[in-house]
Amino acid sequence: MQIMIDIDSNTPMFAQLIEQIKKAVQTDSIKPGDGLPSIRQLANDLNVNNKTVAKAYQLLERDNVIQTKGYRGTFVHPDAKANCSFDLNAWVFEKLSETIETLRKAGATDSEIRIAFGDVINNRTFKEKEA
Amino acid sequence: MAITTLILYLAFLSQIFLLSFYYPSRFIKRARYVIETYPPTDYPKLYPSSFGYDSKAAYTSGLTSYKVMNGIAILVGLGLLTWAIYTGYTPSPTGGEEVIIVGYLFVQSFPHIRAEIAAYQQLKAMQYFDKSTKRVAELAPRKLFDFVSPIAVLAAAVLFVSWLMFFISSEGSITEWQDNVYISLTILIAVHVGYIFAIRQALHGKKQDPHQATKDQLGAIETKVKMYVYSLIFMNLFLLLNTAIEISGHEVLDPIATTIYFQVLVGCIMELLFRTHKVETIDYEVYRGTSSQQ
């Protein structure tokens, strides 16, 4: 099973990696329990930075598509196929839409929501902002 | 003439023949086959070069200089042998004369070092001129035992431990050890660690040839890994033999053991290269393209 990345693509390389690994899982090209190449091996083969592959692996592990077993290596998660269908971006979009809708109903303007969102994402507390 | 002297002369003659004539001739034949079958006009990616540079001429002249350097090594070897026969040279019973064999091996290795540098430069140029934006990788881990038998790895490890124990026991109590014992141990352990790193690098290191087909990449890895593991086996066998020679007081055999060791080692590596990485089975279509694709 081969994966291919395009360094000229607008999609970041780590996202291309995630997409291709998920696709490989969904098409049964790789099965639960199958070993995956080490970060160093994959980065060297694709001639990309180790951090790019590490980021892709980290996000795949967070989504339970892959699992790292210490020195034994990285493997496809037993529930990888089910977890692949879970679209985190869609879930984030849905949750934010719900929250924004609640805030709008409470009378907050879009501008206030945007500023508050920026502050929250930058870990600024309300008190800090007021000060 | 003593039998050991005669064996040494024959073994040295064999070293000249194998390392400076037989294997270099096979190497030249292989390189010529590649350039004739896959010329730069049709396979420009195989001969990366700047505009207006005659790749074929450079490649052919490189092969000629390789041949000339091997010719010089043959002349030096035959000169040494003639001098030995003329002066009635016999190896010293106290040993230490394997230095001549190692020194001559160093002379014989010049053309191969030059060829390795040229190959490295070629791969660097391939990477430099590679304009493709798509990169492919195999989504499977590469493990040591996929490329070499566990028995070979075990044999290398067992032989190393055996030599280490044999060597330590032959040197007597640790309180009696001279500096040279510590130096020998440090160097040989460092060499083994170096081999382990080299194997790791071969397995997971950077792909040198950006165009190489996956099956050829795996083939090249297999050749390298086997080469390192077999080299370790031969090196430890040689070390065991060398220690045994020293203990038994037959140091006169040192130069013979050294030359035979190097011949077996180089022979094994070259046969491995020629057999497992056959030029006829390599996918050269990946190097096909127009000059503008370099």
Would you spell out the secondary-structure blueprint of this structure?
The complex is a heterodimer of chains A (131) and B (294).
Chain A: E1 2-6, H1 13-26, E2 35-36, H2 39-46, H3 50-62, E3 66-68, E4 74-76, H4 80-84, H5 88-105, H6 110-121, H7 126-130
Antiparallel strand pairs in A: 2-4, 3-4
Helix pairs in contact in A: 1-3, 2-3
Chain B: H1 3-37, H2 55-87, H3 98-129, E1 134-138, H4 144-147, H5 150-170, H6 179-204, H7 214-248, H8 254-276
Helix pairs in contact in B: 1-2, 1-3, 1-8, 2-3, 3-8, 5-7, 6-7, 7-8
Structure description:
The complex is a heterodimer of chains A (131) and B (294). Chain A has helices at 13-26, 39-46, 50-62, 80-84, 88-105, 110-121, 126-130; strands at 2-6, 35-36, 66-68, 74-76. Chain A is elongated. Chain A has 131 residues and is mostly helical. The mean pLDDT of chain A is 87. Chain B has one domain. In chain B, helix 3 (98-129) packs parallel to helix 8. Chain B is an all-alpha fold. Chain B has helices at 3-37, 55-87, 98-129, 144-147, 150-170, 179-204, 214-248, 254-276, and one strand at 134-138. The model of chain B has no long low-confidence stretch (mean pLDDT 87).
Total strand count of chain B, please? 1
Number of strands of chain A: 4
Domain module count of chain B? 1
| SSE string of chain A, helices as H and strands as E | EHEHHEEHHHH
Distance between termini of chain A? 57 Å
CATH topology (fold) name of the largest domain in chain A: Arc Repressor Mutant, subunit A
Strand fraction of chain A: 5-15%
Question: By helix and strand content of chain A, what is the structural category?
Answer: mainly alpha
Series of secondary-structure elements of chain B, N-terminal to C-terminal: HHHEHHHHH
